Amino acid sequence: MEHKLPLAVIIMGPPGSGKGTQSSRLSASMNIPKISTGDILRQVSLGDGPKSEYIRSVIATGGLVSDNILADLIVSRLSDLDCKDGFILDGYPRNIQQATFLGELLLDRNYKLLVIEVIVPDDTLIKRVKGRYLCKNCGTIYNKYFAKPQKDGICDKCGSSEFTYRSDDNELVIKERLKEYNTQTIPVLDYYRQRNLLVSVNGEKTSDEVHEDILRQIARALVNDCN
Ligand code: AP5
Ligand code: MG
Fold first, then answer.
1. pTM for the whole thing?
2. Domain boundaries, the chain
3. Does the beta carbon of 141 sit less than 6 angstroms from any atom of ligand 1?
4. Residue-wise pLDDT tens digits, 19-77
5. DSSP 8-state assignment for residue 144
6. 7-121+179-226, CATH topology level
7. Which helix (H) or strand (E) holds 12?
8. Is residue 37 a contact partner of residue 74, using CB atoms and an 8 Å limit?
9. Cα(30) to centroid of ligand 1, in Å?
10. How far, in Å, from the CA of 49 to the mean position of ligand 1?
11. 115-165, pLDDT tens digit by residue?
12. Residues 6 or more apart from 84 whose CB is under 8 A from it?
């Protein structure tokens, strides 16, 4: 998709709604990077030392990692050269403090901001999260019920035959993550809705259909901007 202004697209939705799946697809279609705070935090959590340990323990219980850690991470990642034509945020912002921080950060930069909410009912979310697995090598997301690789046991993207699970994908932690979403993140949707920056898509459709819907919403927002 052609676009002139640098675009900042935020993909929002509860755990399992398809943020990661859709932001990867959008990143490929639009040729701008995907920034997943969950992926970055999981990577940091593998290290040694108190910060990694802290992040590990928060992720394991389904809470939110501190705003300060997220602020450092976002400032550093957005200053990378590959973000200059735009980027897709997956999993940030997740509370009002993070949303206002991001607003200040983008104030001086000429990004067109668009927020996409992916709507999926809770019972579907739980089934999706329980069925999720990932390529151990490249992180491509699969699902044992809904999205298997084309060749069983071989990653479509990199050909690896090793897969892994997320340790926070168990029913107890999913419920905590959903609780955090409902209390901390739903107000962020209202924040963007009030600013006329929010559009919603039905995340229960197939991944292809959701992708098409998101592309259509972005195209519409860009056309409206030119008028
Ligand atoms: P994060 O990694 O962001 O987890 P999450 O928000 O709980 O969301 P998920 O990654 O579980 O789901 P998703 O929406 O990406 O769905 P996916 O595409 O994989 O965060 C993890 C933790 O990090 C947080 O709990 C927190 O502790 C910390 N953290 C992260 N950001 C933070 C922040 N800003 N501040 C503080 N702490 C933060 O899809 C799910 C499954 O469904 C897959 O198997 C997929 O194949 C399948 N699927 C996708 N789309 C479809 C479809 N249309 N139809 C059928 N199946 C589908
Ligand atoms: Mg994700």
1. 0.95
2. 7-121+179-226
3. yes
4. 999 999 999 999 999 999 999 999 999 999 999 999 999 999 999 999 999 999 999 99
5. T
6. Rossmann fold (3.40.50)
7. strand 7-12
8. yes
9. 21
10. 26
11. 999 999 999 999 999 999 999 999 999 999 999 999 999 999 999 999 999
12. 6
